[in-house]
Amino acid sequence: MTDNRIGFAFCASCCTYDKAVEAFSEICGIYNNVTPILSGNAYTTDSRFGTAQALIDRLESISGKKVLHSICDVEPIGPKALLDLLIVAPCTGNTLAKLASGITDTSVTMAVKAHLRNDRPVLLAVSTNDGLSGNASNLGKLLNRKNIFFVPFYQDNPLKKPCSVIADFNLLSDAVRLALEGVQMQPILRCASAQV
User: Fold this and answer.
1) Residue 146 burial class via C-beta count within 10 angstroms: exposed 0-12, middle 13-18, buried 19 and up
2) Residue (of 126, 132, 195) closest to 163 by Cα position
3) Could you tell me which residues come within 8 angstroms of residue 128 by beta carbon, excluding any fewer than 6 positions away?
4) Can you give the pLDDT at residue 196?
5) Which of 14, 111, 18, 103 is nearest to 69 (CA)?
6) What is the pLDDT of residues 55-91, one digit of tens each?
7) Helix or strand or coil: residue 161?
8) Spatial distance between the Cα atoms of 141 and 67, rounded to a whole number of angstroms
9) Claim: this prediction has a pTM higher than 0.85
10) Measuring CA to CA, how many Å separate 24 from each of 20, 52, 63, 87, 172?
11) Which among 12, 112, 136, 168 could disulfide-bond with 42, CB atoms 3.0 to 4.6 Å apart, if both were Cys?
């Protein structure tokens, strides 16, 4: 176990929760201080993939910490320098667009803004159906932004959803280690066929 303080923020890409929770559990096994954060939608939305309360219960059980879920909860991340690294996984297209535009109207975007003021790394694990269309420009902006790193991603269904991309959650723990060193894991773009 290492002493790095990690924030792990979930956005409401409900179909990705199983992968994200598995990655969260792995990170909690490596780092002894992991804080779960949920966007407002992730904190309140029940879907065909499960209830919001079930997600909250799982994260709190794994980490032993209460889930932060409001702007007021996460704002102290900046002034109190509470984290060494902030992970956003899954990072939806909506959050991606807000981060690229400097919008801070959710707990997750506020957590990122607060954390970045300390010149510390943010690691994004994208999960969006428009990553290669409407959100492609936002991906490009964030790829060029200081202290923003990406978990390598791939097209999850190139034939039926050609604009959809998802992070390779199997690489998240290695991407965390590198981001803590200020290094972007390469290659960022992975072959979809290698993920099937």
Assistant:
1) exposed
2) 132
3) 13, 91, 92, 93, 96, 135, 164, 165, 166
4) 45
5) 111
6) 999 999 999 999 999 999 999 999 999 999 999 999 9
7) strand
8) 30
9) yes
10) 6, 16, 9, 10, 9
11) 12
